[in-house]
Amino acid sequence: MSLAEWTTAASDYAERIDNIFWLLCTVSGLILLLVMALVITFVIRYRRGSQVERGELPPSLKHEVEIGWTAATLFLFLFIFWWAASAELAALSPPRNALEIHVVAKQWMWRFQHPGGAREIDTLHVPADTAVRLAMTSEDVIHDLYLPALRLKQDILPDRYTYLSFTATKPGTYYLTCAEFCGTDHSRMGGKFVVLSPAEYARWTAAQPEGDDLAHQGEALFRTLGCSGCHTPGSSVHAPDLRGVYGRLVHLSDGRTVTADEAYLRDSILLPNKDVVAGFSPIMPSFKGVATEADLVKLIAYLKSLSASASRQGAPP
Amino acid sequence: MTEVATDMTLPFAPVEETGAASYLDEGHTIMSWLATTDHKRIAILYAVSITIFFFIGGAAIALVRLELIEPHGWFLTSDAYNRLFTLHGIIMVWFFLVPSIPATMGNFLLPLMIGARDVAFPRLNLLSWYLYVIGAAFTVYVVIAGGVDTGWTFYPPLSSNYANGQVVAAAAGVFVVGFSSIATGVNFIVTTHMLRAPGMTWFRLPLFCWSMYTVSLVMVLATPVLAMSLLLIVAERAFGLPVFDAAHGGDPVLFQHIFWFYSHPAVYIMILPAMGVVSEIFACFARRQVFGYAFMVYALLAIAVIGFMVWGHHMFVAGQSQLANLVFSFLSFMVAVPSAIKVFNWIATMYRGQIGFEAPMLYALGFLGLFTIGGLTGLFLASVPIDVATTDSYFVVAHFHTIMVGGTVSAFMAGIHYWWPKVTGRLYHEFFAQFAAITMFLGFNVTFLPQFVMGWQGMPRRYHTYPEVFQVWHVISSLGAGILVVAYTLPLIYLGWSLFRGERASDNPWHATGLEWQTPSPPPKENFHHVPVIDAEPYMYHETGHPREPGEPTPVREQGE
Amino acid sequence: MSEREQRHRPTVWQLAREPVLVWAALLVLLAISAVLAHAPIAPFNAAVNLVIAGVMIGLLAVFLMNLRMASALVRLVAASGLFWLVFMVALTFTDYLSRP
Amino acid sequence: MSDVSAAVREPWPDLTVQRQGVGLGIWVFLASEVLFFGALITAYGIYRSIHPAAFLAAAKHTELVYGTINTVLLLTSSVTMTVALRAAEARLRRATIGCLAVTLVLGVGFLLCKGLEYRDDLREGFFPGAGFPLADPPTQLFWMLYWIMTGIHAIHLSAGILVVGVVAMLFWRRVLPVQDSTMEGIATYWHFVDTVWILLFPLLYLVGRI
């Protein structure tokens, strides 16, 4: 366990954040030095009883000085805001085909599910130089996945997906931990964050215990939970066809249109009456308490694989 | 305390101790204290209560700092650790910092400084102290009954469904003490508007009165939202109503919005009075008018208003949308501008002054340095990417402690020492006070500078056990906490000593120009024997217009004759 | 109580004349909002109801709470409560409306 | 006129300044109350924007009849309180006490009507929890807000009734002169409780009626 696990900047984004941090340090250091220098010289030069010129300042000078440093402070802060905000906006748009890893945080442990089916507890392996997107949810309280080496953290909320996307560049073993107070063992909720070169990552995934990948597990669940009873084209029940639904615009019965992202799919499974598709009646039962977090991750992976295969074959949705 | 250099003689000789009955002689029974409606006595009741709670909160964090010397702890369980830092947070925020300057110095000095006989609603003032006592009783019950382990922020679903401590009792305690500060706020606003002495126009008010007025605005408008957020937590925990329950479509982030809508203005409730105290002390001990009085007033008002629009910077990683992050980040940079202006104006006040180094001035200089560091690190946390990297780490802990301990507690100590002769009629021993001030400044830096360093390295906050990598910083920080314990108990000793053995104080030992120094110390029950008439600007420490030769006495125009 | 003052003091009914007028106006507005709530103007129901509620509150504040004769300071205080409320609602909605 | 001097309290020079002081004080307190309820209104607005359909479905089951009767009761009580205040300013002691009594009766009437409504709601099971009749979970959010908003409003009204009762008793026993400054305070507070209800009425009762 060395300090490097915390402080090395393991991604381009992290390096850019370090640059901003050191810029802010120098700017703040200069202002602090200016303040201390002024205070010390005034305190010594104008101490009580010192024989030194103490005339009154002309009122106009006082006004200009006042306006001057107000404006200077305003523009300096605006510049810092623009500099920091632009770094943030650059990191905003995650690439489309990022590697999707599902994270489930539970009171005082982490569970990671790779698309290839690999499952990990408290350790996360990611390939270097590839865009990775973590879709995270919590099973109880608010947690926070904190990756110090990437200078990133994101709160994890129950019944909602929050995302963390990055592109690690330096392979190595770093630290990951929880950063939002979540109860008794909040401080023991840490683990390893391992960045492997793409080849090593492929070898590592292959070496994982043979469990087929999420999509196939999702397909099995799609049948066992009874979804196939309504949602296959041949079924007698009038239910929306799910092939190719992921990422598509869906028109709802109350006139709104939403994009079918993970949150929409998840809500439609747990709260079916929330966004009823136009032209369908809200007859779908809620699967809350039936489908666990892990099942939901698999079902959504399966639905995404449907849209991937549908777009490949160009079959009409 | 050595009398201020005699060459600063004032044309009107202070009224000798005529033995007139002071407010302390009005009654010596318990009931004369517990049923008083005299704003000066209520100020002392508050001073005693918040000192007790300052040391309870201090004891809690002393145990935590001891525990953190070892990476895996040595005498506390994780649960005990969590309950101790939660207790430290709740007590320090609501039972010491929020009432610290408004309820003690504000209560005592606001009527004196504006020439009034008492605050507008004396009985409401006493009710405010009793609400504080009831809230304190709830918190003492929480301590006895096992404490609460949610952090002082009470985030659901931890506080509503998963925490097993005394959340409802703690929320009730804070709910009640919230109404104590609303009562004080209402009182100060009406007093400042309607009970000013003839001639005391708004721009002749001392800056301390302006800070009391602006802090009252923030207290009155922010605290009810805290009351509602805690009430909703109790509704979910005690009555099972799914207020923030995500399973029913609720949203825990909504609680954070409502909670921080109060809790960021709360940090301005803590710092605005400190700015008022420090402005008075710089003017008096540099013997100069406050530089840019009007800008200082506008800065106070700007902080009070914009302070309500920046709460989102506590939630950059909480699941807020990117647009909201950028909006709150921009507004947070805007609210930093008035604070920077005030720092420059304090420095400019010292320019060409006659600077003395009595204890109040040492604390004020300490305030100036530490408030600058606190403000600048606030800029780091206002920019979204740096906040994403450092929020919930020790960098944030160091930032807000620099403002609260380095800023507000230093100013509180400065005010206690500056107005001690007026409140008690006694002079404290200057050397010990200066020693305590310097010890506190050193102790502060040794405690919190290491926390900035390990915060940027990634050490998360609220951790009972931590990776060994950070042990060196924790040990230094705990050492600094030890120095602070010494620095905080010293004033208890020499100020307590001065109460009985201290030299008798004249009416105006510091030769200050405020109205509170125109009346005997300790002042009589009705504050002024005759209603003062004001015809001069505040802080007439040096004659404007023609440059003054060094050593020439400071002619101050007659006041109150 | 001097004789002259005795005669000039208004009776209760004279005092009550204006408040009763305001009362009638408030009841009419209440009736309108209740009826409009059933009217099939789907997207505007909420907005219309709130506007009518705002008018009723305005009537009550100006006439019954004497804001008309109150000092500018009291009017400013009355408005400040609403002004801060707008801060809270608007900035909270910037978060919720722009969530993906 | 001797009882007027009894009404002037400590720091105030005379009664008119004291009345203005109490007026300003009560209005500053009401600004804080506006934000106290404002936090609830914000929560209502946010949840309604997230679950519009559920709120419409849930709000159908509130009882419009009770709500309308209550609104009429409170509006009338506000009018009688105004007459009481103006009578007090004109030093009509008996009229003031009479109007205060009518206001009290209307306030208690509101509470009784509210109690009946709560009993019906509970009988139909509209308290969020296990036996909630509506299937869609976010409908419980609306009813959670219903219970909290009307509950806190009822508490504020009960506090108002208590204070008005005590003040009316003090007037009746001539302990306080009628033109005392407390009249200014309780009247403004009562009107505030009424304005809160005027805002709550459309949010809780006029939703989803089409």
Quaternary state of the chains: heterotetramer
What structural class results from the helix and strand content of chain D? mainly alpha
Radius of gyration of chain A: 27 Å
β-strand percent of chain D reads: under 5%
Counted by DSSP, the helix tally of chain D is 7
Total strand count of chain A, please? 12
What is the CATH topology classification name of the largest domain in chain A? Immunoglobulin-like
Question: In angstroms, what is the radius of gyration of chain D?
Answer: 20 Å
Order of helices and strands of chain A: HHHEEEEEEEEEEHHHEEHH
Biggest sheet statistics of chain A: 5 strands, mixed
What would you note in describing this structure?
Chain A folds into two domains: 1-42 and 93-211, Immunoglobulin-like; 214-313, Cytochrome Bc1 Complex, Chain D, domain 2, CATH 1.10.760. Helices cover 39% and strands 20% of the residues of chain A. Chain A contains eight helices and twelve strands. Chain B has a single domain (39-518), classed as Cytochrome C Oxidase, Chain A, CATH 1.20.210.10. In chain B, α2 packs antiparallel against α3 (78-114), α8 crosses α13 and α11 (359-382) packs antiparallel against α13 (394-424). Chain C has two domains: 3-69; 71-100. Helices cover 79% and strands 0% of the residues of chain C. In chain C, α2 (12-38) packs antiparallel against α3 (45-64). The radius of gyration of chain C is 20 Å and the shape is flat. The termini of chain C are far apart. With 210 residues, chain D is mostly helical. Chain D contains seven helices and no strands. In chain D, α2 (15-50) crosses α3 (52-59) and α2 (15-50) packs antiparallel against α6 (138-172). The longest helix of chain D is centred in the N-terminal third of the chain and has 36 residues, at 15-50. Chains in contact: A-B, A-D, B-C, B-D, C-D. The interface between A and B is large, with 85 and 91 residues.
Q: How do the helices and strands line up, and which of them pair or pack?
A:
The complex is a heterotetramer of chains A (317), B (561), C (100) and D (210).
Chain B (H helix, E strand, L loop, with lengths): L29 H5 L4 H29 L10 H37 L7 H23 L13 H5 L4 H28 L12 H33 L12 H34 L7 H14 L15 H29 L8 H24 L1 H7 L3 H31 L1 E2 L2 H28 L13 H31 L1 E2 L57
Antiparallel strand pairs in B: 1-2
Chain C lengths: L2 H6 L3 H27 L6 H20 L7 H26 L3
Helix pairs in contact in C: 2-3
Chain D lengths: L1 H6 L7 H36 L1 H8 L4 H26 L3 H32 L13 H35 L9 H24 L5
Helix pairs in contact in D: 2-3, 2-6, 2-7, 3-6, 4-5, 4-7, 5-6, 6-7
Task: Summarize the structure in short.
Chain A is of the alpha+beta class. Helix content of chain A is 39%, strand content 20%.
